[in-house]
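Hi R.,

As promised on Friday, here is the backbone we talked about, encoded as structure tokens. Could you run it through your design pipeline when you get a chance and send me back a sequence?
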């Protein structure tokens, strides 16, 4: 096979329930160009490996799969970086092993657009969110059709579903992503950072057409899996640190937006710490949030009152409990 036009980049870990649909979505693609499928299995202890091997050896298009099975678990971000480095195509399409594509012309449509519009570095589309906890489905985004997603948009929060993204295999943007991870290996997200650096280098087109499914399930969605516990608090703290570091990478206006993004994540952490009655962390994050109140895009006075009220109630409750314990 000649050098492929597209490299499909798929990382997987413990996806035995889902990897079939992901691979089926890759293999059903109808294109007038060659593509390869990079699958990087991060030492899954379940049956993921056997299923991938089955497709490689028993399916006519299985030869398109370039499979890497790690003998030791690397972690999600190192595995993502490893998989990206294996991609040789002119374009890279992302899809993790628990999500899947539903349109056999997805790659053709996105590559055609990028081929005809060299000023764009990437394009993406809307997806269906399949919530297995609540047995319901909804759209990921409510954006206007054929709009552009800018660096300014992304600095206020991610608006690109990973499984929808096709981007130019541009060494500048990708190398910036690699360099960032080298400086900040604790990062819990890779796609958002990549999206920011892509948007910095060019335009990103969004299509409202539905061409894939993002699953919400117990093994992939940490916002649900870790909510209301100490692990989720740690993840939010990681996000805050990440946003602070990212703000040093961009110009003044984008830095301001990233700090605004930080305040909303910090407020979520503040409320969770209060819910968990973690007085120390609730106090510290509240004080940090107050110091960045200027970047809050909502009603600043209302947030100030909320912080003051919640801390007051938290401390009164703590003192009341202490008083009752003392008098027992």
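Update: got your reply. Pasting your designed sequence below so it's all in one thread:
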């Amino acid at each position: 096979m000649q050098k492929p036009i597209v490299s499909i980049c798929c990382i997987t870990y413990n996806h035995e329930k889902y990897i079939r649909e992901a691979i089926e979505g890759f293999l059903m693609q109808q294109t007038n160009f060659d593509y390869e499928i990079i699958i990087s299995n991060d030492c899954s202890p379940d049956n993921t490996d056997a299923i991938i091997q089955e497709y490689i050896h028993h399916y006519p298009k299985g030869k398109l799969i370039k499979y890497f099975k790690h003998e030791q678990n690397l972690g999600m971000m190192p595995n993502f970086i490893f998989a990206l480095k294996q991609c040789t195509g002119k374009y890279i399409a992302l899809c993790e092993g628990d999500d899947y594509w539903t349109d056999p012309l997805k790659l053709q449509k996105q590559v055609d657009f990028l081929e005809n519009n060299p000023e764009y570095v990437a394009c993406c589309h809307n997806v269906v969110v399949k919530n297995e906890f609540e047995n319901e489905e909804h759209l990921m985004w409510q954006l206007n059709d054929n709009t552009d997603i800018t660096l300014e948009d992304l600095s206020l929060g991610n608006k690109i579903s990973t499984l929808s993204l096709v981007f130019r295999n541009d060494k500048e943007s990708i190398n910036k992503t690699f360099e960032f991870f080298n400086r900040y290996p604790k990062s819990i997200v890779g796609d958002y950072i990549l999206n920011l650096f892509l948007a910095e280098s060019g335009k990103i087109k969004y299509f409202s057409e539905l061409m894939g499914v993002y699953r919400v399930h117990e093994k992939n969605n940490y916002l649900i899996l870790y909510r209301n516990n100490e692990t989720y608090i740690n993840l939010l703290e990681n996000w805050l640190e990440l946003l602070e570091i990212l703000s040093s990478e961009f110009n003044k206006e984008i830095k301001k937006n990233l700090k605004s993004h930080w305040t909303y994540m910090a407020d979520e952490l503040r409320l969770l710490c209060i819910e968990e009655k973690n007085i120390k962390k609730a106090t510290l994050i509240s004080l940090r949030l107050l110091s960045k109140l200027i970047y809050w895009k909502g009603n600043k006075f209302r947030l100030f009152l909320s912080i003051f009220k919640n801390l007051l109630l938290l401390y009164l409750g703590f003192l009341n409990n202490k008083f009752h314990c003392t008098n027992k």
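One thing I noticed while checking it: The mean pLDDT is 90.

Thanks again,
M.
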